[in-house]
Design goal:
The protein is about 50% helix and about 10% strand. It is globular, with a radius of gyration of 14 Å. About 30% of the residues are buried. A hairpin with a 5-residue loop joins strand 1 and strand 2. It has about 140 residues and is mainly alpha-helical. A two-stranded antiparallel sheet has the order 1-2.
């Protein structure tokens, strides 16, 4: 999986949004397998039109590091999930809070290309991740 800066560079290189959508879909296909027994209402992200499930595993470092796994039943949304996992997974609550996800969203051009429902769903996932970070030792708040 490519790193965030590689992703930004690739998106900037691709002029055509059809190519960017294909890249998003490919990124979604590369998500690690999500356990069927984790597709529960408790793990479902509120505010997403599509179904999105998100779980976290906490690495017992000091400060703790949060590792996220997620899945969706929509191809484009799976790609958005992959972007969020790149941005947040393996980070501490403070690093999660300090991540400029709005800036990344804009650099990738997503603010201009996604429907309002998909944009709202993206930031619902961000809010959920920030809430989980707050539960595990931070005061992270979503800047959506």
């Amino acid at each position: 999986m490519m790193e965030l800066q590689d992703l930004v560079d690739t998106f900037e290189f691709l002029d055509d949004w059809e190519d960017r959508y294909r890249l998003l879909i490919d990124m979604g296909r590369e998500l690690p397998e999500f356990p069927d027994d984790a597709r529960t209402e408790h793990n479902r992200v509120d505010g997403c039109t599509s179904n999105v499930w998100l779980i976290t595993e906490v690495e017992d470092d000091n400060p703790p590091r949060l590792h996220f796994r997620a899945d969706s039943d929509a191809f484009i949304v799976k790609g958005l999930v992959a972007i969020l996992l790149k941005a947040y997974s393996g980070r501490t609550p403070q690093e999660i809070r300090d991540t400029d996800i709005e800036g990344l969203f804009n650099r990738l051009g997503l603010s201009k290309q996604l429907t309002p429902n998909r944009r709202d769903g993206f930031f619902a996932m961000v809010k959920r991740i920030h809430g989980l970070a707050e539960q595990h030792g931070g005061t992270a708040t979503a800047n959506a």
